Amino acid sequence: MPFDARRVIAKLEAHTELDSSDRLALAGLVTDARFWEPGHTLAASGDPLEAAVLVLEGVLARTRRLADGRRQIVGLLFAGDAADAVGAVLPRRDDDLETLSAVAAAIVPQSRISALCEAFPRLREALQREALMEASRAREWMVSTGRRAADEALAHLICELWARSKALGQAGNDSFEFPLTQQQVGDCLGLSTVHVNRVFRQLRVTGLLRLQGRRLSVVDGPGLQRLAAFESDYLHLAP
Amino acid sequence: MPFDARRVIAKLEAHTELDSSDRLALAGLVTDARFWEPGHTLAASGDPLEAAVLVLEGVLARTRRLADGRRQIVGLLFAGDAADAVGAVLPRRDDDLETLSAVAAAIVPQSRISALCEAFPRLREALQREALMEASRAREWMVSTGRRAADEALAHLICELWARSKALGQAGNDSFEFPLTQQQVGDCLGLSTVHVNRVFRQLRVTGLLRLQGRRLSVVDGPGLQRLAAFESDYLHLAP
DNA sequence: CGGTTATTTGACCGACTTCAACTGCAGTGG
DNA sequence: CCACTGCAGTTGAAGTCGGTCAAATAACCG
What we know:
homodimer; alpha+beta
């Protein structure tokens, strides 16, 4: 079976000790994976918050849109991440869930999540922790959109994606698959596509990184982290 | 007794039905109020997350700072708001709690919060809801810092503070006490103090609002909301 | 009343946007 | 096999929004 709960379990076990019954219960949630094209809206702002989404493969974005088409990406979810697993207590969605690439995910009704949390307190705790980690990442992005210059913000985003990629075991020693188009990066950081491109070039010519297709090679990791003033604490990764 | 749990209770009851035992338990948390001057840091990033803060009076901000002094305010907490009441599952703080005015608040150890949530499931739910509402407000601020022009962003912030003030019963029909200095507004929206001032003037001369000291009078509410494209849904206020 | 902090205004500058055009690449169908 | 299409990336020129610097006024407070 190509997609199962392994990644979700691995993600939660990075910060929460689970026993085999926890794992079994969690695996029971991922009975059927569904697939979407890039650019598809899984759920829209205003919809009832009736299901959580467990991402199995690909990139899912939490977005908000303005009437004239301006878009802000307010969160990124990768394989193993759970969206809205503690959202049941609010009646309606307040943002869209949009696929940024081809995505495989499991849709889990809130009722099943609630039942699970009731029966397995450690899972409730783990999902709670994930939700708080996502909120912390959102606050850090606010620092980027609000107070960091474009080059600092881009360097910071790269450092974050690199760190999360490493945490998933998907990053090489000094390179990883960069999961976003430059347009999507702009929507994360509140920049125009053109400027994202210029800043990428600046990071290239100053010898901080290289780009070949989707592969991003970090040439000068310390330099990149210095430019971003990157401190990974806010990710709450290792215990 | 000048400060008690009344506001906290009223806030939670706006979205969650509590019975008298819930209320009693909540009131038991607010045994002693403490007081701080404006500009005081109650808790700093990196500290152990050992207590929640119930705001009884004044304005508390969640902030993040860069090494060179740049500051981003990532959340505002008013009377009745609870900070980190569901934070126990993370080991450390990821932001500072800073008073923006004189503040009265109750410090509640996480152990008491946990015990309370265990015994009163409705309170857990209510506090959970508050945390999700705060996260939603943070995402909306990202739209302002990332994708809104300065005048739209300021108009939007004013609309939000007006709405929250009305929800607390502290706003007149078309005016309310504006709780922030222009410097603090800049740190919320990622703008310089000087520019905040200019945009305030612009909103004045275009006839949207008036300012006399701390009192902000909304002259043209619909116009202000139109400029901000303000939709209050993200606040999850009314049921 | 003096000292501090908040607000206000002007002049200048630069970071980022907008507009427009061109390249390269992958898919698709004739 | 190769034109055709569409999208991601790239680059240049010109304009604007918002920042910085500096200084003056206004409000606040002991």
